[in-house]
Design brief:
The complex is a heterodimer of chains A (about 450) and B (about 425).
Chain A: H1 2-11, E1 16-32, E2 35-52, E3 58-63, H2 69-80, E4 98-101, H3 114-130, E5 135-153, E6 158-176, E7 179-189, H4 200-214, E8 217-218, E9 222-228, H5 230-242, H6 254-259, E10 273-276, E11 297-302, E12 305-306, H7 313-319, E13 327-328, E14 337-338, E15 342-345, H8 352-357, E16 361-366, E17 370-374, E18 377-381, E19 384-389, E20 392-398, E21 401-405, H9 406-409, E22 413-416, E23 421-423, E24 429-431, E25 434-437, E26 440-443, E27 446-453
Parallel strand pairs in A: 4-6, 8-20, 9-16, 15-26
Antiparallel strand pairs in A: 1-2, 1-5, 2-3, 5-6, 6-7, 9-27, 10-11, 10-15, 11-12, 13-14, 16-19, 17-18, 18-21, 19-20, 21-27, 22-27, 23-26, 24-25
Helix pairs in contact in A: 1-2, 3-4
Chain B: H1 2-10, E1 13-29, E2 32-50, E3 53-59, H2 65-78, H3 100-103, H4 107-124, E4 129-145, E5 150-155, E6 158-168, E7 171-181, H5 190-201, E8 211-217, H6 223-232, H7 235-239, E9 260-263, E10 284-289, E11 292-293, H8 300-306, E12 314-315, E13 323-324, E14 329-331, H9 338-343, E15 347-354, E16 366-378, E17 381-386, E18 389-394, H10 395-398, E19 404-412, E20 416-430
Parallel strand pairs in B: 8-15, 14-20
Antiparallel strand pairs in B: 1-2, 1-4, 2-3, 4-5, 4-6, 6-7, 8-20, 9-10, 9-14, 10-11, 12-13, 15-16, 16-17, 16-18, 18-20, 19-20
Helix pairs in contact in B: 4-5
The chains are: A alpha+beta (about 450), B alpha+beta (about 425).
């Protein structure tokens, strides 16, 4: 295959050409309630060719049939010629290299039978189901995937990488009359089967939380000081700031460049944020991104000030900045776009007790259903929450969904905890049509003042 | 076909689905044509039944047929016991899903249309940044099962998605639109005009304060209530016992102004086809009629588990087994013209778009979303855009009392036909700075 790839790259008439081929095997086991929904394996294989004509644009061909790569290169080249650009499109230089990166798994899940994967999921499912007679259904998932990716470009880079991923998700659904509540726990990593074994305690936590939520009242809508746990703080920084630091939003938009100018203050001095695609053992980690650029740490906010952003080769060239190794694609069906990897709020100094002790009426928001950013505005959804009354954690509340604004919410972070954690959660990030991309969040507890929470009216 | 022969010898029932998609896309980024893309996707999905156990496997690798069959059989060894029967051929409605005008649309013409859209918007908002993508394709689906049922059809989806952002100081306005059709529409600028009207209305920013206010949902904004409702109406949510609608067929649960229909037989829409993805004919299925719960939507498996017949709502992607999903979901038009609804609102909110759709415990009917595009209504007029406003509630309470449903409806996201819907009172939370 290597010879075919090199020959196809050589045949290209474009200014820049890259080929990425992928073979992926994956297995899924899903239980819903007492029933096994599916236990199955799928095979996905295909490729993408991307060509750039400097005075034209990008041309892309994606395909399953990998026999005639020269024809695919020609197709992509023809596409690239459709556009016309007055200003030449440049790519920032990146090192040229050749490397083979093998996955190093303790217990390779490809050697585990579907029966054993089913047994694992069934075990967690039984814990969820048997926890309480209020649990009416479950959604218990085991998923693994093993990708072999070959990336080569016309500059001479040739990288082969194995990318494993293993995930369990345990969701319990409790019901009392018309009241239906769900709670979930998950664990996911670039690791072997051992990574998702022995998670019985997580299953019990999810089941108990679903039952507890049956007795929780909906939150009263309003503005509150909010303390956010590590998991939700990670989602928060991803949504609140991460997406706006992706340079593809600003690089061709002069007004956005003004708004996101390096040196602008976004937070108080205590706030430090970075993205790092090179940290071992995290879901967003790869040695190279999908343009062959080595990954590393990019500080986005230092001492409250915007100091950097995430780049692809094209956005870096256009803005005269350095590429950061953040061009990522979820599969061979998509070109790489600017994405986060592992994003974190750095450790602070405040203890949890100090954070809540002066709050008369506030909310402690925990866990995450997810979040969404639409430019300056964003939402982030907690999985469960508690009221804070007179400096103490009080009753549980539900349906706590927080609204934020880039320019005010970050400045309203006035305490950062001393209890930093990386969260090995499942799920992923979506941008454009590309979902789910494995990313990791890390954060300590944080406190944010004046957060809008939608909800019912006070009785 | 070799694979069919192998399965016929070894399995009690089988279903083999060949999918083949080809598409061409042109994308404008920040007002300029940036990328052109051709996609070719093909793959095979297999379901088998052996001794009452159901198995699934899929592959996009044409050289891996042997592994595909092996995976399907292994899956059935551990599969769930389901009384499923892959159906014999049945008479299906005639539904238009294919139009050569779309499949033969030349790339230069697609580029021209994209430019026309960009120029139209820049004329209205010269400072805006416009992203447009036009995508046309051919999709071929061919299903075979052990009964000899061969359900196949092709469709020609065309989608136009437009998003616009406009930055003024620290105010970022974002407005998007998506139109999808499988039959060529001469008025391809309809979505662009709809979007432009919103851009004009959004120019003026205004403030509002929290309180109990009437809320008007636009067709696109109505998804906020539609998403939890769609989950509750799924046969799968009912079978697993998590839908609040379980066991309530025939009961009047909503305002008599609310009717919901699933209809996969409408020409040219994204959810339309003669058959669903399991070879069951599409049809028109009333789910809620004047507030009374009439039916749920089912695929073959969930229907078999529930002891009812499939409603033709089996839906699949290549790599996952089918599940129940709406085809085209319609909330029935009401009798009140939109203009009259507006006149009736003294002070309220018009919801156009929300953040975090579907997040949270939506199966319970609860929703809570910040509004990403919303307007203030004052004395019957839309007076300006409002920011930092959130709405929350539960559809099973709110939809009992609807003030009015508009006569006008719009297709959004290619397969949803929705009206304007006016709720008399909701708790509106606005940020006070």
């Amino acid at each position: 295959m290597q010879e075919k790839i090199r020959a196809a790259l050589k045949s290209s008439k474009a200014d820049y050409t890259e080929i990425r081929l992928e073979e992926r095997e994956s297995a899924t086991v899903v239980y819903r309630g007492k029933n096994l929904d599916t236990a199955s394996a799928v095979i996905d294989a295909g490729g993408i060719v991307r060509c750039l004509c400097r005075d034209g644009g990008w041309g892309i061909a994606t395909f399953n049939d990998r026999d005639d790569l020269i024809a695919k290169v020609e197709q992509a080249y023809q596409c690239a010629k459709v556009a016309h650009s007055d200003e030449p499109i440049e790519l920032a230089p990146v090192p040229v290299g050749e490397e083979r990166i093998a996955a190093n798994l303790q217990r390779d899940f490809r050697d585990i039978s579907l029966a054993d994967k089913k047994t694992l999921a069934e075990g967690y499912n039984n814990i969820l189901l048997k926890h309480s007679d209020k649990i009416v259904s479950t959604n218990c998932l085991y998923f693994d995937s093993f990708s072999h990716i070959t990336f080569a470009n016309s500059e001479g880079t040739f990288i082969e990488e194995e990318r494993p991923l293993v995930t369990v998700v345990m969701a319990a659904i409790a019901r009392d009359g018309n009241n239906v509540q769900t709670a979930h726990e998950s664990r996911s990593g670039q690791a072997g089967f051992e990574f998702v074994m022995g998670r019985e305690e997580q299953a019990r936590i999810a089941a108990q939380r679903a039952v507890d939520l049956l007795r929780a009242e909906s939150v009263v809508g309003g503005q509150y000081p909010v303390v956010v746990d590590q998991e939700l703080a990670g989602v928060f920084i991803h949504e609140a700031f991460g997406h706006l630091s992706e340079a593809d939003f600003v690089y061709e938009n002069p007004k956005a460049r003004e708004m996101m100018v390096l040196g602008r203050r976004f937070g108080q001095d205590i706030l430090n944020v970075y993205d790092d695609g090179a940290l071992p053992g995290l879901r967003g980690t790869h040695k190279y991104d999908d343009e062959g650029m080595p990954t590393g740490r990019a500080y986005l906010i230092k001492d409250g000030i915007l100091v950097g952003r995430l780049h692809s080769r094209q956005t870096a060239a256009k803005m005269g900045e350095q590429p950061t190794g953040n061009a990522r694609a979820i599969s061979y069906r998509f070109p790489p776009i600017v994405r986060m990897t592992n994003t974190a709020i750095e450790q602070g100094t405040t203890s949890f007790e100090d954070m809540i002790k002066d709050i008369k009426l506030g909310v402690y928001a925990c866990g995450a259903y997810g979040g969404q950013t639409e430019l300056e505005n964003f939402s982030f959804s907690s999985a469960y929450a508690y009221m804070i009354r007179d400096g103490k954690i009080a009753e549980m509340v539900k349906d706590v969904i927080l609204a934020g604004n880039l320019f005010t919410t970050l400045l309203n972070i006035d305490a950062i905890g001393n209890d930093f954690q990386w969260m090995h959660r499942g799920g992923g990030c979506g941008k454009g049509a590309q979902y789910p991309l494995p990313v990791t969040f890390g954060a300590p507890h944080i406190r944010i003042q004046n957060v809008v929470i939608g909800g019912k009216k006070e009785k | 076909m070799d694979i069919l022969k192998q399965l016929r010898q070894r399995m009690d029932q089988f279903e083999v689905v060949h999918l083949r998609n080809e598409s061409t896309k042109v994308s404008f980024e920040s007002n300029r044509l940036k990328t052109s893309q051709v996609e070719e996707t093909k793959g095979i999905a297999v379901r088998v039944v052996k001794q009452g156990r159901l198995g699934f496997a899929a592959s996009s690798d044409a050289s891996a047929t042997e592994q595909l069959v092996k995976n399907a059989i292994e899956s059935a060894m551990y599969g769930d016991q389901v009384p499923i029967t892959f159906p014999e051929a049945q008479h299906a409605p005639t539904v238009k899903t294919f139009d050569p005008t779309i499949t033969e649309l030349p790339i230069p013409r697609m580029v021209e249309i994209g430019k026309e859209i960009v120029d139209y918007i820049l004329q209205i908002e010269p400072e805006a940044r416009v992203n447009v993508s036009l995508k046309r394709g051919i999709q071929q689906v061919a299903l075979h099962n052990q009964t000899g049922n061969e359900a196949s059809y092709q469709s020609s989806p065309l989608s136009i998605s437009v998003s616009v952002n406009k930055i003024q100081g620290d105010d970022i306005l974002f407005v998007g639109d998506f139109t999808g059709t499988t039959v060529w529409q001469e008025d391809y600028l309809a979505g662009t005009r709809r979007l432009s009207e919103k851009l004009k209305l959004a120019r003026r920013l205004t403030a509002m304060s929290s309180g109990n206010l009437p809320v008007l949902f636009s067709p696109n904004g109505l998804l906020m209530l539609g998403v939890p409702l769609q989950q509750g109406l799924s046969g799968k949510s009912v079978f697993t016992g998590i839908s609040p609608l379980k066991g309530k067929l025939g009961e009047k649960l909503f305002s008599d102004k609310l009717s919901v229909i699933d209809d996969g037989t409408i020409d040219g829409k994204f959810g339309s086809a003669p058959y669903d993805d399991e070879g069951v004919p599409h049809r028109r299925n009333a789910l809620i009629e004047n507030g009374v719960l009439k039916n749920f939507y089912y695929d073959l498996k969930t229907a078999a588990q529930s002891g009812v017949a499939s409603t033709g709502n089996g839906s699949r992607t290549l790599f996952a087994p089918p599940g129940p999903a709406p085809t085209n979901l319609i909330i029935g038009a009401g009798g009140t013209p939109l203009a009259d609804i507006l006149t009736g609102i003294n002070e309220g909110v018009l919801v156009e778009d929300v953040l975090g759709l579907g997040q949270g415990n939506t199966i319970s009917g609860a929703f809570s979303n910040p509004l990403s595009l919303a307007f203030k209504i004052e004395k019957g007029e839309i007076v300006g855009r409002v920011k930092n406003v959130s709405l929350a509630g539960n559809i099973y309470t709110l939809l009992k009392n609807i003030a009015a449903v508009s006569r006008e409806t719009e297709w959004v996201h290619g397969n949803l036909n929705l009206p304007y819907l006016w709720l008399p009172e909701m708790n509106v939370i606005a940020k006070a700075d």
